[in-house]
Input
Amino acid sequence: MRKGKHVYVVEDEEDIRELLKFHLDREGYTVTTVANGEEAVKKISRDLPDIILLDLLLPGMDGLEVCRTLKKDPRTAAIPILMVTAKGEESDIVAGLELGADDYITKPFSIKVVIARTRAVLRRRREPLPDKAATIRIHDLEINPGRHEVMIKGRPVEMTFSELRILHVLASRPGWVMTRDQIVDAVRGQDYAVTDRAVDVQIVGIRRKLGSRAHYIETVRGVGYRFKEREEE
Output
């Protein structure tokens, strides 16, 4: 009988695999471990987990191919994937996020960070995302697309249409890393044509207008942006 959310750990290094299993077990998760990509795809397709911790450097079918395969299958497409990768492999991180992975952890990692990221991804999956017209209140900001208003502690902040849309998209997913392409996709269909390069320019403008709250929008080097999940530094 399973005791909690079911986590698949796909990792070829035995010591890391067992370390993750031990600590996730202690946190109350049900953990299944797999050492290679082909086996992971077969097992996950038969036994759908709540989340997958996926190493990228796997023998045979690598982590990116595993992610691509699972996201193409309607049965497994909605399962959140937390990538685990070696530091500095920014191209792989970007590729994984664009394939549909939800977040990433770099090696060497802290077990506390793994647990926190796992909880955060599962929590996001439970929470419905607000629609494009929904008012968002986070930290001391209020973003109201319908009235085209951004307020900081009740004080209005003037923003262009595209700046407000991008801020709204990021704030609707606090802690969630978004690539430039994902941001473009999220605001596509609006009156303003946003391109991936234009996103960087818009972020500069948003930060300038947020002033002392500019740090709410974090740059994830080589990947994209995310809205700060917690207000404290």
